[in-house]
Design goal:
The protein is mostly helical. Helices cover about 50% and strands about 10% of the residues. The protein has helices at about 5-15, 20-35, 45-60, 65-80, 105-115, 125-135, 140, 180-190, 235-245, 250-260, 270-275, 280-300, 310-325, 325-335, and strands spanning about 150-155, 155-165, 175-180, 205-215, 220-230. It has a 3-stranded antiparallel beta sheet.
């Protein structure tokens, strides 16, 4: 039996047909597992070792989904050497959250905008606003180039525009178009004006290094590379959330966008899919409850006590019922 470090690297070398993000995740977890078990023989890893690892990750603040992904990586490595079957029934996966994220409250959104203004990362504010207003995933917004933006400029400012998603995790998401909100136009004007030498193939959110300057510790960036996309901004986002006194995932920006669309009864599910790309069945089930609440509120408004209606309103209501004897039945069935 080989050392775990040898077995893990051998298993990872066979993963050649995976999406880049999936491969990067496996590389990350293999590195973590090697730090834990690297000098031990692979056959010496027991269910107690796995349980201890799970508890350690929980103490580190890792989510159940992250812990399960790491254990699943370990399972595949052990399975390759015929060692997992003996552990079946002895390893318990952690219970994951079944919700699909949450929308950012309006008051928290303003707190996060103020925190993003103070961030050492100058890109965080335009990234946050554009994500809220377009529903783009983090990897979709990272790969945006100038040629993906159809902008209408007027007097040195973006008046309106449409972005096209060049690459998405789903076929439905790739190539979709999203009109830019007025707020996004304002923040993009300030951001893009920093880079007058940008070309059509330049990245909208480019690679740079961030730092602080002067006694006032003013945020600045340097080593700008228009030909490479921005890296991860998880640390900047975490600091902004802590500064704002709130706790949200970055992906909650997308949930906020879709929730606000769903709260508008005039926006169809087809329009939501067209703007957001793929929307899971679980997400739609959640948003269908939002739509039901809006419908019930509308019906409740129609069912106000007669004493609150004026005489002209009573007359119109009577006329409607006289000419539509089935109207009340239909309304109850819709409800």
């Amino acid at each position: 039996m080989p050392l775990f470090s040898v077995a893990a690297r051998s298993w990872l070398s066979g993963k050649i047909d995976l999406a880049p993000n999936t491969l990067a995740a496996y590389e990350h977890f293999v590195s973590k597992l090697i730090n834990e078990f690297g000098r031990r023989l692979i056959c010496d890893i027991s269910e107690q070792d796995i349980a201890d690892l799970q508890r350690a990750r929980v103490r580190e603040g890792k989510s159940a989904r992250t812990v399960n992904f790491e254990i699943n990586t370990l399972r595949q490595i052990l399975k390759k050497h015929g060692l997992w079957n003996a552990l079946i029934g002895h390893v318990t996966h952690m219970r994951e959250r079944k919700d699909v994220g949450k929308a950012i409250a309006t008051e928290d959104e303003q707190k996060l905008i103020e925190a993003a203004k103070r961030s050492r990362s100058p890109a965080l504010l335009p990234l946050f606003v554009l994500s809220l207003d377009s529903g783009l995933r983090a990897n979709e917004i990272r790969v945006l180039r100038h040629w993906d933006l159809a902008l209408r400029w007027r007097d040195g400012a973006i008046e309106s525009g449409i972005l096209t998603v060049p690459k998405s995790k789903t076929e439905a998401g790739t190539g979709r178009t999203v009109p830019l909100a007025k707020r996004s136009c304002r923040f993009l004007t300030l951001w893009l004006s920093r880079f007058p030498s940008a070309k059509p193939d330049s990245y909208v959110f480019l690679r740079y290094s961030a730092g602080l300057a002067g006694n006032a510790k003013r945020a600045l960036f340097h080593n700008v590379d228009l030909s490479r996309p921005i890296g991860a901004w998880k640390k900047a986002w975490k600091i902004a959330c802590e500064s704002a006194g709130v706790r949200y995932r970055w992906h909650d920006c997308r949930h906020t966008f879709i929730t606000r669309l769903a709260e508008n009864p005039n926006v169809s599910e087809e329009t939501i899919r067209a703007l957001a790309g793929h929307v899971s069945k679980r997400m739609l089930e959640r948003y269908s409850h939002i739509r039901l609440a809006a419908k019930e509120a509308a019906i409740a408004d129609l069912e106000r006590p007669a004493s609150t209606l004026t005489t002209p309103e009573l007359t119109r209501s009577a006329d409607v019922l006289d000419h539509s004897p089935g109207a009340l039945t239909v309304a109850r069935r819709d409800r």
